[in-house]
Write a structure and sequence with these properties.
Layout (H helix, E strand, L loop, with lengths): L9 E2 L13 H13 L4 E4 L4 E5 L4 H11 L8 E4 L6 H4 L4 H8 L6 E6 L6 H4 L4 E6 L3 H10 L3 E5 L11 H8 L5 E2 L12 E4 L5 E3 L2
Helix pairs in contact: 1-6
Length: 208
Amino acid sequence: MSEKITSVTAVDDTSTTHTPNLPGAGISLVSAARIIAAGGVIAHPTESVWGLACDPNNAEAVQRLVRLKNRPLEKGLILVSGDVNHFSGLLHNLSGDQRARIDATWPGPVTWLVPHFDQIPPWVSGVHHSVALRHTNHPFTAALSRAFGGPIVSTSANPAGCQPARHKFQVLRYFGDALDFIGGGSTGGRASPSEIRDASSGRIVRAG
């Protein structure tokens, strides 16, 4: 869908990291998951910064997200989930050693580049033959993906060339009411973005 889901951004005022365990947090979680399923774009906290999320199978939602960020579609995007089984179709192509390297870091703030063998929409993988995957351990984001029923696109909540948002007020400053939901508590407090490694070689692409 090409239009926003709501005319006014839904803002969750919960401020603690462990949002899914708080009274009323389940309502925000279900709302966010439904908005994603309906083609919306939301902001949510991750291990280190706030992210923008949408349904990776919805081309129009992804295109709207990258327009908000002014990010070239060909650069590709990260898929995150709190359930490693959401990635089983991609991980089964890896060797035992490659899978062991990944399992040693998951769940956690390490993103792995995994060959996708054309199983991923081109608006997610961009021009690359691999796709970036992270099994997140952030409570809200992990629960959000499970409520949605699959991995979600997650990319830092900032326009290209600007610093990633570490607080909700920065997300609002960057995007105002252009998003359909902003909430999920706070980040995990890590100082650095997630580390990115190549599953085929084990090479560190971006230090974390």
